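S1.2 Input.
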Amino acid sequence: MNYAILEASGKQYWVEAGKFIDVNNLSLQEGSKILVRRVLLGRNKEDIFVGKPYLKNVQVEAIVGKDFLGPKVLVYKMKPKKKYRRKKGHRQQLTRVLIEKISF
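S1.3 Output.
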């Protein structure tokens, strides 16, 4: 089983070929291809490669999907006995990315 752990938009993702991941908004056209080179760890059938911090010979090819809004996060501020209450919501803009191929 081939998989890789890559870094994208400040987070680490465990990816396989054919799987989707949701990353922070990429301002790219839908259907365009990207090449991720920030690979921290890679594994093919018999070998495991660990980067210090990144692997130079492992690349992950991906296709950019559609943009959408993530789940709503509520932020509630309150100060007791002062009649101060604020309730706000936030939805992060995300982009769905299809992992096409992992090449070692």
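S1.4 Remarks. The two ends are 13 Å apart (CA to CA).
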